[in-house]
Design goal:
Length: about 375
């Protein structure tokens, strides 16, 4: 029996709605690992069933933690996350806390947990599923077949750079300032991850920067270029971020793997999500050198639809699949979950964000139930 501790951080807004659904999917996919299927019958008979069991612990973070404990990331939450095998996060933030001081913002808690877990590599896959081509705002021939992986640096750059703050300029005017800073080793480690990711995909890596203007980007480009000799099998290119934003819409199929800094990765991954039909579809995995990974949808707490059972839970369910694959090495269960999502879409179920005429409009809970039904019917893929 394989058994894992998973910390759940539902957070705010739609976070609790989508995490509840993903938790059930994880549990069922784990339990089904113990059931002999057609393909793996002989294996199961010889080894005995190997049920995967999860011990979940739920902790507060974000606005919910500000309200309950007066901080967006309580020590207890970070300690629990650090001691677990993997962390699944919903989303944080909301109008209520938007004007809080920085140390009391939900977003600060999110940056703190990423830093606290040392998860510097954020993988954000954006693939256009054939079932959802019509949900994309792009023309069918542009969107069809898109399959991109954005590798976003997550614990450095302007999000964390010092100095930062508010001040006065020499005219006595108020100022706000931040610092975009990267060290060579920070660039090297994310670049290595990206080359490895590209190697497992189609062997193409595009590094996105603003090296025509920013020193941090000049260093970025220099480090990426010098590491390329270690990966002669990968086709490396460089692109300025403004052009990359344009090319993603013009001809997204030219991209395989993209590596970029924290802020460009934030922006480009939201842009890439729209190729796939909705931000409600895009999962992510954040990993470091060691310790538990952090798995979260790329979307936010969607306060405009929170509490209405309208959220698309698929991004979080697919994040749970990434948790199984990258966090726990449970590839078979990960494939089972992904196959269940595909089948649920094949069965015509759609939340509002991916709805198109001729499909069946469902809410968050019902979408979860439909996925659970199909998880059960997936035979193992090992
Ligand atoms: P958002 O991603 O929450 O919402 C943008 C739009 O997409 C909204 O119209 C929303 O309804 C829709 N949307 C998002 N997720 C959806 C889903 N699963 N299903 C259907 N529709 C979905 O971004 P925002 O409105 O800019 O930010 C809202 C709050 O979330 C802010 O406080 C922000 O700081 C926070 N935020 C948190 C995270 C995170 O926790 N990782 C990420 C982004 C934004
Ligand atoms: C994301 C979010 C966060 C980020 C915010 C909420 C701090 O937009 O996870 O993409 O900018 O990283
Ligand atoms: Mn974002």
């Amino acid at each position: 029996k394989r058994s894992y501790n998973v910390t759940l951080l539902p957070g705010d807004g739609i976070g609790p709605e989508v995490v509840a659904v993903a938790k059930d999917v994880l549990s069922l996919a784990g339990a089904l690992e113990g059931k002999a299927s057609n393909q793996s019958l002989s294996l199961s008979l010889s080894l005995g069933p190997m049920r995967v069991e999860f011990r979940f612990q739920e902790k507060l973070m974000g606005g919910a933690a500000v309200d309950a404990y007066g901080v967006p990331l309580p020590e207890e939450t970070l300690a629990a996350a650090q001691a677990s095998d993997a962390v699944l996060l919903g989303a944080i933030g909301g109008y209520k806390w938007d004007n809080n001081e920085k140390h009391l913002k939900p977003e600060t808690g999110l940056l703190q947990i990423r830093a606290g877990l040392g998860v510097f590599a954020n993988l954000r896959p954006a693939a256009v599923l054939p079932q959802l081509v019509d949900a994309s705002t792009l023309k069918k021939e542009v969107a069809e077949g898109v399959d991109i992986m954005v590798v976003r640096e997550l614990t450095g750059g302007i999000y964390f750079g010092q100095p930062r703050g508010f001040g006065k300029n020499d005219k006595g005017e108020d100022t706000g300032f931040n610092t975009e800073v990267y060290s060579a080793s920070e660039v090297d480690r994310i670049t290595r991850v990206a080359f490895e990711v590209a190697r497992k995909r189609r062997g193409k890596l595009c590094s996105v920067d603003k090296a025509n203007v920013l020193e941090a980007s000049m260093l970025w480009r220099k480090q990426v270029t010098s590491l390329a000799s270690e990966f002669p099998d990968i086709e490396l290119s460089h692109m300025y971020v403004d052009n990359a934003a344009m090319q993603l819409i013009r001809n997204p199929k030219q991209f395989d793997t993209i590596v970029t800094n924290n802020i460009f990765g934030d922006i480009l991954s939201d842009e890439a999500s729209m190729l796939t039909g909705s931000i409600g579809m895009l999962p992510s995995a954040s990993v470091g050198e060691s310790g538990p990974g952090l798995f979260e949808p790329i979307h936010g707490s969607a306060p405009d639809i929170a509490g209405q059972d309208k959220a698309n839970p698929l991004a979080t369910i697919l994040s749970a699949a990434m948790l199984l694959r990258y966090g726990l090495g449970e590839e078979n269960a990960a494939k089972r979950v992904e196959a269940a999502v595909t089948e649920t879409l094949n069965n015509g179920f759609r939340t509002g964000d991916i709805y198109s005429p001729g499909t069946t409009l469902v809410g968050c809970k019902r979408m979860g139930e439909e996925v659970l039904k199909t998880v059960e019917s997936q035979s193992t893929v090992a």
